[in-house]
Amino acid sequence: MTNMPASLDRYLHDADWPAITRGLDTTGCALLPGLLTPEQCHSLAACYAQDRGFRSRVVMARHGFGRGEYKYFDYPLPALVTQLRSRLYPKLASVANAWHERLGIEARFPGNLDDFLARCHDAGQARPTPLLLRYGPDDYNCLHQDLYGEHVFPLQVAILLSEPGRDFEGGEFVLTEQRPRMQSRVEVVPLRQGDAVVFAVNHRPMQGARGAYRVAMRHGVSRLRNGQRYTLGIIFHDAL
Ligand SMILES: O=C(O)CCC(=O)C(=O)O
Ligand SMILES: [Fe+2]
After folding, report:
1. Does the CB atom of residue 83 touch ligand 1 within 6 A?
2. CATH classification of 6-234, choosing from 2.60.120.620, 3.40.1790.10, 2.40.440.10, 2.60.40.10?
3. pTM for this model (two decimals)
4. Which of 133, 188, 237 to mutate to test the pocket of ligand 1 (most atoms within 8 A of CB)?
């Protein structure tokens, strides 16, 4: 994999971060359309078949997580994954800090990923969390939250590496939001190949009459009707 592609640098520089922040604040998710090129998607998805470069493989059905499988990258991450993780982090850290402030959570996030990871590693959360997921016909991913220890960065990113309609059908990315004492609401996020969705890992603040309250978010993937679907997941906190 090559060094930081200029296109990615430009994308992150030119993106409308105030609009992305508004999306995150109002719905708990925001789209970064066309963050990766089809070629980048293809080469990341092709990594899945390799044995090297991963620390573990999870067959979802064995754990009741759904159907399909995923593999956690090992350190050192592929260059493109490192770049995405370290460049996206500072853009999202200010949203994360604003959310903690509104939720009355004490922890604040440093401005760069290395400082945040040092905090995770000091607490024993030292295993890398970026992952590739692979789904085939009838596979799905149950609603879940990617929590791996005490240290939680409240936003994460998923990038669709396959093209809906061409590579697979079904398999929609869904988010649910559970307000206290209310029934859950679902949001389907339409993604094309190369699109990234930024979303809340566990809680997000919602403005109420008497200040902000906590909404619990979960994410998952609906059943594939056919084909193959690959995703790159970028989680910022490391795992115990
Ligand atoms: O395959 C997907 O779109 C969901 C991936 C996921 O659960 C994650 O990135 O944490
Ligand atoms: Fe996930």
Report:
1. no
2. 2.60.120.620
3. 0.97
4. 133
